[in-house]
Amino acid sequence: MDRTPTTAPGPLDFREFAAARGRHLVRTAFLLTGGDAYLAEDLAQETLGRVYDRWRRISRLENPAGYTQTVLVNTFLSYRRRRSSSEHVTDTFADAPGTESDPALRVTLLRALAGLPAKDRAVVVLRFWEDRSVEETATALHLTASAVRSRSGRALARLRAELGADSLSELRS
């Protein structure tokens, strides 16, 4: 009987995964948090920590990146539930401006996203930023497909009212 040890996914595999997906997680978390770069980094780090704890099982999944996105969204939602009332939201951004053609529009969009309820914001980010289907978004957020459609419709209507329809069409192009 051959007793050669099999090589199971180890820390090196996780490091490669984290290096490849880390920036994407931070960008998604940045949108979920409404532009809070520091919180976005914290959420991405916490997400990677949770994934690392279960990496042997997660690495065998068909789509570990999708699973990690789901963990990120759940981490964000649980943070929103337990956030201390002593924290104060500010409208100043510590990041350097991006190279987008209209940084003012980006800041306005982030403020509008921050004004949405956490689950509605998560639906908008997953559906339109991550370009996930209704079914994928529903699975990630533990909602029904009809709840995702109604939340996204309500959130988009609120964004259109705040930003104007012209601003949203500029973002899609």
TrEMBL record:
Keyword Transcription: yes
Domain of life: Bacteria
InterPro entries membership: RNA_pol_sigma-70-like, RNA_pol_sigma-70_dom, RNA_pol_sigma-E_actinobac, RNA_pol_sigma70_r2, RNA_pol_sigma70_r4, RNA_pol_sigma_r2, RNA_pol_sigma_r3/r4-like, WH-like_DNA-bd_sf
One Pfam family hit: Sigma70_r2
Keywords carried by this UniProt record: DNA-binding, Sigma factor, Transcription, Transcription regulation
Claim: DNA-binding is one of the keywords in the record: yes
Residue span, RNA polymerase sigma-70 region domain: 22-84, 112-161
Membership in a protein family: Belongs to the sigma-70 factor family. ECF subfamily.
Protein's recorded name: RNA polymerase sigma-70 factor (Sigma-E family)
Organism: Kitasatospora paracochleata
Lineage: Bacteria, Bacillati, Actinomycetota, Actinomycetes, Kitasatosporales
